[in-house]
Amino acid sequence: MSALAAPYAAMVMDARSGEVLHSENADTPLHPASLTKMMTLYIAFEAVENGELTMDTVVTISRNAAAEPPSKLGLRSGQKIKLRYLVRAAAVKSANDAATAIGEAIAGSEAAFARRMNRTAKAMGMSRTTFKNANGLTETGHMSTARDMSLLGRHMIYDYPQYYNLFSRITTHAGMHEVYNTNRRFLGAYKGADGIKTGYTRAAGFNLVASAERGSERVITTVFGGRSTASRNAKVAELMDLGFKRAKTRVALRAPGKPPYLGNRGLGSVEVARSADPSPDGARGKTIRVVSAAVTRSLRPQSRPGPSSQEIAPLVASVESDIETVLAKVQTAEEIAVSEVEVAAVVPAADASEVAPSASIKPVRRPQGILLAAASAAPTEAEAVAVSAPAQETQEVVTRLSTSGGRHWGINVGRYPSRYAAEKVLLKTALMETSTLDGSLRKVIDRSSGYDANFMGLSRETADLACRRLQARQVTCFMIGPS
Questions:
Q1: 94 is catalytic
Q2: % of the chain with per-residue pLDDT over 90
Q3: Based on the domain organization, do 316 and 242 belong to the same domain?
Q4: In 3-state terms, what secondary structure has residue 324?
Q5: pLDDT of 370 strictly over 90
């Protein structure tokens, strides 16, 4: 391994199934360097998904974040910047100041954020990883392994596919200026490469977690301990080739399950964080954050009063016994109606910039939306299209709801192996929960790992109520925020 620095570790994994295709020293704890930022970004996406903050949340930069050494965006203490730009800088440029600012914005302090990182890592099965900071700069005890980082990369791909394209952008605007991808050489040189993260410190050497897709096959390769960017990339390319050679052409997709969402719970009894930034009058500020010492009750929302199980059972049994017939009739009727409808408007969604890949790069395979009420293909950008039928006294067909009035939310009721299975569950759920889902849009999203069954066009309150009522009936459900 003349091209690699000791200590060296590597793993090659079939991303579809998690099968290990090759490993060397894969369980040896080593310095991960900026591979750490994958977890920082994973938690940022989780926080946005669960409404802790949004991509447009304005973050005030602390003196601690501004003082981080390069690579950095060049943030200044007291500066205000949107979260979306911090996310871009951390993902593309691997900016240490941006990563620290993300952690502080979510958890209040970098130490508290590190504890959340460790809880999330444990829930993912990253058994030999300990995080001490949000950026990966060398710190005693801040260690991970090639196996654990491969697992994290796989979760990033399948848990948040709507954000994964960030890692393939060659360049992006990060609020202050344009930044360039630290992994652009490998992305441009290896066929099918579409992410995900580089890392370098003197203690770690040159690290890389990379993913590439060719046809139906996707391989994740992780290397710790390269001597240079060029030699590391050459080694990763060699291992990628080995992975594609050993990977089976047809493999049943077994996407990893998302770790449970706990937010910032369990961070300690009382945490006092003293700010290093002076207040406007020159005095030192003090922020007191009080967090409960332990979770003392179930984190699952309590169900609101609804129909009893005796009232629900006949309906569910009826739906299950004749669901294929009902689905066929509904789809036939809707296909006839769609031929008469007229597209009225197109409105871009608020955060489409974080979903759509840059026009200057090789695009990642993107999920396509499938509407049960319309046979047309979904647009490539996140859009809301209002469609109305000609005026009739007996029937009005609405295939997409207006996003005005705060109806930007939705719910997901599972991921399924086929579009038909997802459509079937959507129809069954709509008939089961008519009081909250009436008038919503049933939508199937084609992901690389399956078909997501979504109801869209809901207010936040309605989506929350629908999810709690469905969860009370043991139906899988989580809310989808404005994208």
A1: yes
A2: 55
A3: no
A4: helix
A5: no
Whether residue 192 lies inside any domain: the answer is yes
Candidate ranges 74-83, 414-423, 428-437; pick with highest mean pLDDT: 74-83
Residue 260: count of CB within 10 angstroms of its CB? 9
Q: At what angle do helices 37-49 and 110-124 cross, to 10 degrees?
A: 90
Residue 448 a catalytic site member: no
Tens of pLDDT, residue by residue over 302-336, are: 444 555 545 545 544 454 545 555 555 555 554 44
d(CA 256, CA 372): 27
470 and 350 co-located in one domain: yes
Task: Please give the model's pTM, rounded to 2 decimal places.
Answer: 0.59
What's the CATH number where 72 sits? 3.40.710.10
> 34, 168, 231, 358: which one is catalytic?
34
Mean pLDDT of 401-424: 79
Preceding peptide of 61 cis, ω within 30°: no
Q: Give the span between the Cα atoms of 161 and 170, in whole angstroms.
A: 18
One-letter amino acid of 434: T
Rounded to an integer, what distance in angstroms lies between the CA atom of residue 42 and that of residue 155? 9
Q: Of the residues 62, 71, 94, 144, which is catalytic?
A: 94
52 domain residue, yes or no: yes
Residue 231, pLDDT > 70, answer yes
Contact present, 478 and 434 (Cβ < 8 Å): no
Catalytic residue among 37, 72, 424, 428: 37
Alpha carbon 468 to its chain centroid, in Å, reads 22
122 catalytic? Reply is: no
* 342-348 and 270-278 strand pairing: unpaired
Predicted local distance difference test score (pLDDT) of residue 364: 41
Q: Which of 212, 165, 169 is nearest to 192 (CA)?
A: 212
Check whether residue 103 and residue 216 sit in a common domain.
Answer: yes
For residue 285, tell me if it sits in a domain.
Answer: no
Q: How far apart are CA 170 and CA 178, in angstroms?
A: 10
